[in-house]
Hints:
With 631 residues, the chain is an alpha+beta fold. Helix content is 27%, strand content 29%. α1 crosses α2, α3 runs antiparallel to α4 and α11 (344-361) packs across α12.
Amino acid sequence: xxxxxxxxxxxxxxxxxxxHVIRHTAAHILAQAVKRLYPEARFAYGPATEKGxxxxxxxxxxxxxxxxxxxxxAEMAKIVKExxxxxxxxxxxxxxxxxxxxRGETYKVEHIGDLPEDAVLSFYQQGEYIDMCIGPHLTYTxxxxxxxxxxLSGAYWKNDKNNIMLTRIGGTAFRTREELEEYNKLMEExxxxxxxxxxKEMNLFMLCDEGPGFPFFLPKGMALKNxxxxxxxxxxxxxxxxEVSTPLIMNRHLxxxxxxxxxxxxxxxxxxxxxxxxxxxxxxxxxxxxxxRSQPHSYRELPLRVGxxxxxxxxxxxxxxxxxxxxxxxxxxxxxxxxxxxxxxDEIIGVVGLINQVYSKFGFDYFVExxxxxxxxxxxxxxxxxxxxxxxxxxEKLNMPYIVNEGDGAFYGPKIDIKVKDAIGRTWQCSTxxxxxxxxxxxxxxxxxxxxxxxxPWMLHRAIFGSIERFLGILIEHYAGALPLWLAPVxxxxxxxxxxAVMAALPGFFASTxxxxxxxxxxxxxxxxxxxxxxxxxxxxxxxSESSLLLSLSELLEAPRTSSWQEADLPFAVEAVTTAxxxxxxxxxxxxxxxTDVSELVHATSASSAxxxxxxxxxxxxxxxxxxxxx
Length: 631
């Protein structure tokens, strides 16, 4: 693929840069189309992104809606067919400002003023449209083969809420139409899995104007959230973590000591108490540090693994809010590990092992990125080298491939980011593992060494889910709402298939974790039909692997007329007693195993029109060990 650079030379584009160039050119063609349709438009920024492109536009009093996107897209298609050559040129600062002023591009003029004095001011022109850009670009508009506009949103000029709100028009572009078609199919599937729609349909959570960015969890949603939290606690207790809870609101001086006030205060909510400034915590780490500092420690105690499911609040712009993915309050599954420098490799191995355990349980594939020392960092060269080598050694011991992001670490230490891929191939950033030299020193943390001197511990920040709320949103979309049985807020459902079907004695069915005996259903007489689904969480049965156990009522109802039954292949069976026939008969039939967690709907018909009704009693029964076969 040929591209043209801002000095005018044409060259073959590196393959890994092709999509970026295609999408950048698409942004210029978008701006040209908008200018043709809305001559009053003025343009701010229009970059390519990882997933597409956008342009921020000032349209004055004109408000666009989704219905306007097809017309803009059609105009883009016309520009592509015009096969306009795309040509670069360079201007002096004075001439660049003059050109942009003549064209009414006030945002570009302001942008020029923000650039260094020695910056090269290059422009690209296609037909009547001129844009300031460093390039490179496609050589002709016709080289843009496949594109689509996808959304409208708002964006503040320079991402500053004190500035004007612009209209952001977003889209995507690909090398071929086939790639675009694949993207369209992915978007259709993503829409089908949208956690906001599924969450509403399943009555899991709600969002409202009275609390934008502050999700309300409904009873079923709390059951789901608590199941995930219970799982988190279980695996962390087994890994020798202790759990703490720190205050939601703490004095400003704490956040000044931690550095958050200087670097993060615009995203923090603050209030006054007794005439002093207090902040609602945006992060759990300063509280965890205070817990450690509350008492002296010996080298023998380390590593000390301290977990917290802390509710944090961070201010997000209203236009950036998105379901459970981007909120203003969420539960962060933090843990802070206080350790000696020589313990780093073993602790990293333990943390990554825990992450692998969680992601494997949910069927996620993932990959690892290692971010190294940035230019503006704190700490000695020796500490950075030891910490980075410790991370590398741990990953190598785990035989875990990783991508190195040079200079992308936190200012206080190197880090590992773990990104998961969901069922439809989307990538999500969830887990992170960060070494911190900074905060222990800021708060004066120490431990008593073997030779009775005081040293500063290293601190490891780590999260598995990242945010409980966001992870729930990811899970809902990953499973398209068909959650694993142990997580599902509704594990049992009985559905009538005929108007005359009468269900009774169902309340409380499997309401407790170990029901000794329950009455499953009372069926209507004559030829009434019943559609029923029974699901039993295998978490109740330690001997069984975590697969769904589905009980077929049809087998129970047909039991008196069945001459033989297959051998049981699971350690649990069902006792069925029927009064529908002249001679009550007791039979035993096995559960059946399925890998899916979606309840099986079974149709059963009462065979005796003379009977007053059919009552089926269901009781768990443990079979002899000799007959157990766990799948």
